[in-house]
Amino acid sequence: MNYTFKETPNTRGKIIDSITLTGNDYLSFPTFFVEKHKLKGIQDKLYLRMYYDKEKSAVAIQFTTSKTHGTYPVNGPEKYGATCKIKSFLLNNEIESSKYAGKFDYEKVNAQDIGLEGEPVFIIKLASITKNSAEESEM
To answer: What is the pLDDT of residues 95-139, one digit of tens each?
Structure first.
């Protein structure tokens, strides 16, 4: 039998692999997410490009190190994850953060596969949180 074992050391840190939209208009990227996608150490040089598909209620998030018109600055201490204030994005797209606040699973796709340019994008579907939250509150 052939095995390819990799040691998995015990860690104290939480393993949260999601993107959070907060009720006060921030996107939050946990430490695990930042490390997994090799963003650790460059949080102070990162910006987001944001895209919205109203019909599918989906948001595409693209990290870039280029500060250009329309990008959103990412904040993040070296030791932790990162956050980004996206109030103008939410207002421009008539998205109420209080309605959709929560943790979202994401899908990472090549930008070219969805008609965009540049780095890969992370897609979250806003409708998914409302269904899950509504079902949990009824229980």
So the answer is: 999 999 999 999 999 999 999 999 999 999 997 554 344 444 444
Q: What is the pTM of this model?
A: 0.80
- Domain assignments of the chain as residue spans, ordered by start: 19-128
**26-43 burial code (b ≥16 CB/10 A, e <16):** bbbbbbbbbeeeebbeeb
